[in-house]
Design brief:
Layout: E1 11-13, E2 19-21, E3 29-37, E4 54-67, E5 73-80, H1 95-106, E6 109-110, H2 122-133, H3 146-160, E7 170-173, H4 175-187, E8 193-198, H5 202-211, E9 214-219, H6 229-235, E10 240-246, H7 258-271, E11 274-278, E12 303-308, H8 310-313, E13 321-324, H9 327-338, H10 346-356, H11 360-384, E14 387-388, E15 396-400, H12 409-420, E16 422-423, E17 425-426, E18 440-444, H13 449-463
Parallel strand pairs: 6-16, 8-9, 8-10, 10-11, 11-12
Antiparallel strand pairs: 1-2, 3-4, 4-5, 7-13, 12-13, 14-15, 15-18, 17-18
Helix pairs in contact: 2-10, 3-10, 4-5, 4-9, 11-13
């Protein structure tokens, strides 16, 4: 794949093996070459790229003044390499940004990036409008407006049976991504080991790199993506500080079973290890009930539970999240949060409080609606010829693309966009070892019925095996 600059552009080498064209328009240029993928560390979901590291050919432009014969000055363009701290060098433009750009370029239906193409409920939006009209527009209290902290605690009690202090144990953040960052930066020291389950959400590795952590990955494999407990047991050492769990799990749709959670909990208690849980899809649990690690005996005291508003209420752009933890862990989370964003959007916090107090009927309808969407996509993918793996939660489905003859997931996704007109996400970017994900791609069904049926129809017309 080649964007913006042709392969014939004269180039000159700069640091780190990057290539910069000798002649550029006086604007910043981003060029991504299919041959330059190094398959490491790309990230996706937040704006979210086409590689575990699409190595980009990039230039920033600076100008100098040069006198000309008529006495005026003209700007002379010089090229400068982009600069980034070493801890972030391997993290490039995210796969989601690249896929969304290609979707527009080729008129493809985007079943890649995980945000809905429909709006959230009116009662929540109206609450936000009212808060703005009521003048709730200045900085909020750093760890959350009291009403939202209380609503989070109330919801957590309903979901887990646990009673938490909204003032001492709930921290409101700018989305779950910031809750993740604040947790990592506030509780992880350089050199600490943190264990992830691959495939994993892109921000985990980047944030842990910023914290200076040593990352260990335990790979879960299809068809059921179960946790290989013997590998986990062997991975824990005296330097292990935390295990990070995402359930329901992005990208696979796996939900950690009670047996798996209880065994992980036992290992954590035996080895004095913390648990960080990302539970943003907890209300999108289809085939089994969601279990929060904090609810297991003896685990609340060593668990940070992270969640957000966006997935449950189709308001991903609001970026309202939170972290729930005992006071001794909340202290570290809040210290980091204070110097990341300090506070989160005030009127949206009041609206989020209204959302979290929605009746049970809202959650029942949400689940019913997503199950219908899931059925459209899964049945369609199977009819086309994909091997579809079970998805018990989230709004994602992972499939084996190998029946269609492409050499890997990135090649398949390029083919799917250009030749079929549908976007999926290559999963190799979700692994420390990209080879583990080269046969898999992820589709999302958080789209309206017409979009899902349109994508399925395109695939049936051009791909059916």
């Amino acid at each position: 794949m080649q964007l913006s600059i042709s392969s014939s552009s004269p180039v000159k080498p700069i640091s780190h093996g990057m290539l910069i064209p000798r002649s550029l328009n006086p604007t910043s240029v981003l060029s991504v070459s299919r041959t330059l993928f190094d398959r490491r560390g790309c990230g996706f979901e937040n704006s979210n790229s086409l590689c575990p590291s699409v190595i980009a050919r990039v230039s920033t432009i600076s100008t100098e003044k040069e006198a000309v014969s008529d006495g005026t000055e003209r700007s002379q363009v010089t090229q400068q390499p982009l600069q980034v701290a070493k801890r972030l060098e391997k993290f490039k433009t995210t796969i989601f940004t690249q896929m969304s750009s290609l979707a527009i370029k080729y008129g493809a239906i985007n079943l890649g990036q995980g945000f809905p193409n429909f709006d959230g409920p009116d009662f929540v939006k109206e609450a936000a409008i009212q808060a703005i009209k009521d003048g709730k527009n200045q900085y909020a209290r750093g760890y959350g407006v009291p009403d939202l902290n209380s609503a989070v605690a109330e919801r957590f009690k309903i979901d887990t049976g646990l009673v938490v202090d909204p003032e001492k144990e709930v921290t409101v953040t700018s989305g779950c991504t910031e809750a993740i960052a604040a947790t990592m930066l506030g509780l992880i020291n350089p050199g600490d080991e943190v264990i992830l389950f691959a495939p994993f959400y892109d921000s985990y590795e980047a944030t842990l790199s910023m914290a200076g952590a040593k990352i260990k990955a335990i790979t879960m494999r299809p068809p059921d993506f179960s946790v290989p407990m013997s590998e986990l047991r062997s991975a824990i050492s005296k330097n292990t500080r935390a295990i990070l769990i995402n359930t329901p799990h992005n990208p696979t749709g796996k939900m950690f079973t009670r047996d798996e959670l209880e065994e992980i909990a036992s290992l954590c208690k035996e080895n004095d290890v913390l648990v960080f849980t990302d539970e943003v899809y907890d209300k999108l649990a289809f085939e089994m009930d969601h279990i929060s690690m904090a609810s297991l005996p003896g685990m609340y005291e060593r668990t940070v539970t992270m969640n957000s508003l966006g997935k449950t209420f189709s308001l991903t752009g609001w970026k309202i999240g939170w972290a729930i933890a005992p006071p001794h862990l909340t202290w570290g989370v809040r210290q980091a949060h204070s110097f990341l964003t300090f506070a989160t959007c005030t009127p949206m916090q009041f609206a989020a409080a209204a959302a979290l107090r929605a009746p049970d009927s809202y959650y029942e309808e949400l689940k019913r609606d997503y199950m219908e969407k899931k059925a459209i996509l899964v049945e369609g993918l199977k009819a086309v010829g994909f091997k579809v793996f079970p998805s018990s939660g989230t709004y994602f489905v992972v499939v084996d693309h190998t029946p269609f003859g492409q050499k890997d997931d990135i090649a398949f996704c390029e083919y799917l966009i250009k030749e079929v007109g549908v976007v999926a996400i290559p999963t190799s970017v979700f692994y420390l070892n990209p080879e583990d994900g080269k046969n898999l791609v992820r589709f999302t069904f958080c789209k309206d019925e017409g979009t899902l049926r349109g994508a399925v129809q395109r695939m049936k017309e051009k791909m059916t095996k």
